[in-house]
């Protein structure tokens, strides 16, 4: 049985995430402490006791979700179910940074600081109200690409997240995205709705943020990963540090090719996907992509225990 560890992206955040892990596992608590120190703020208090509106701010949500994922991984490592048991890692958008941290490519403190910079840069790239994102459900990727092209006109509208066979997200100028919603409905979409996001992620409007991340990534050490990282913009495994750095920059304006990434891992022999961190959104997508694969979410001490029990011989 071949296993992949996958790491969630923005939208999975909840108040209290990771707290039980930190209370049960000293190694998980140490993750939150190191992230707090790296950022010079009490992020863990915000995660566990704050308000969801502040936590959802992009510059907070991104390092918070990564810290929760790394705390869950630290708990797994304590029980002997760590990164050495995975054949591949992958993450959805910001989750790609978590995957790289898990695989030893990026240090934890560097990852936290990079994600805070990324969050601020992505928010500041486009004035509030200028951009939008929308989920188009029930249409395949190629159809959505056609719709986005037609909706764009002289503005930006791109397929931004290819999440699963029937869920694609478009991103761009607000008016163009609104046109895409109407076109999708006319093409038979089951649902087409604007998303409650603060900026149009993963499209050409994010170019200012890509420039910021190019500079930030140039200043950190990226090691070869302990296990191959299946990257968003290529939907294939990458191990060379310079290529990882370039693809993280490209990811800011490029599409998250999640459906293809899961298909690639399935084709490479992965039969089991463990979602490490907050929520179960990726598990739901994976079940719709790789229907024969098993999924497991690891976000609480109980999840870790269940994973441990499942590994015992019958």
Automatic annotation (TrEMBL):
GO terms for molecular function: [acyl-carrier-protein] S-malonyltransferase activity. The active site is at 93, 202. It holds the Pfam family Acyl_transf_1. Its EC number is 2.3.1.39. GO terms for biological process: fatty acid biosynthetic process. Residues 6-312 form the Malonyl-CoA:ACP transacylase (MAT) domain. The gene is fabD. GO terms for cellular component: cytosol. It catalyses: holo-[ACP] + malonyl-CoA = malonyl-[ACP] + CoA. The lineage of its organism: Bacteria, Pseudomonadati, Pseudomonadota, Alphaproteobacteria, Rhodobacterales. Belongs to the fabD family. Keywords: Acyltransferase, Transferase. It comes from Cereibacter changlensis JA139. The keyword Metal-binding does not apply. This is Malonyl CoA-acyl carrier protein transacylase.
């Amino acid at each position: 049985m071949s296993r992949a560890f996958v790491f969630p992206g923005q939208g999975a955040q909840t108040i209290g995430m990771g707290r039980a892990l930190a209370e049960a596992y000293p190694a998980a608590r140490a993750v939150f402490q190191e992230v707090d120190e790296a950022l010079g703020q009490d992020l863990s208090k915000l995660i566990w006791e704050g308000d969801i509106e502040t936590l959802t701010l992009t510059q907070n949500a991104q390092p918070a979700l990564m810290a929760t994922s790394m705390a869950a991984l630290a708990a797994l490592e304590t029980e002997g179910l760590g990164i050495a048991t995975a054949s591949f890692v992958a993450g959805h958008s910001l989750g790609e940074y978590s995957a790289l941290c898990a695989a030893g490519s990026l240090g934890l403190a560097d990852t936290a600081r990079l994600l805070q910079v990324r969050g601020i840069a992505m928010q500041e790239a486009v004035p509030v109200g200028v951009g939008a994102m929308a989920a188009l459900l029930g249409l395949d990727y190629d159809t959505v690409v056609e719709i986005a092209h037609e909706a764009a006109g002289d503005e930006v509208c791109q397929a931004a997240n290819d999440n699963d066979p029937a869920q694609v997200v478009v991103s761009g100028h607000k008016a163009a995205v609104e046109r895409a919603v109407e076109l999708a409905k006319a093409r038979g979409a089951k649902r087409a709705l604007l998303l409650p996001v603060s900026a149009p992620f993963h499209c050409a409007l994010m170019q200012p943020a890509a420039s910021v991340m190019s500079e930030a990534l140039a200043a950190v050490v990226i090691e070869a990963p302990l296990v191959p990282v299946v990257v968003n913009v290529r939907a294939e495994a990458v191990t060379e540090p310079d290529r990882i750095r370039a693809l993280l920059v490209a990811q800011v304006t490029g599409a998250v090719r999640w459906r293809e990434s899961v298909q690639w891992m399935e084709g490479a022999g992965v039969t089991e996907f463990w979602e490490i961190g907050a929520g179960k959104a990726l598990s739901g997508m994976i079940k719709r992509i790789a229907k024969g694969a098993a999924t497991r979410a690891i976000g609480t001490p109980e999840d870790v225990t269940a994973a441990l029990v499942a590994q015992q011989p019958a």
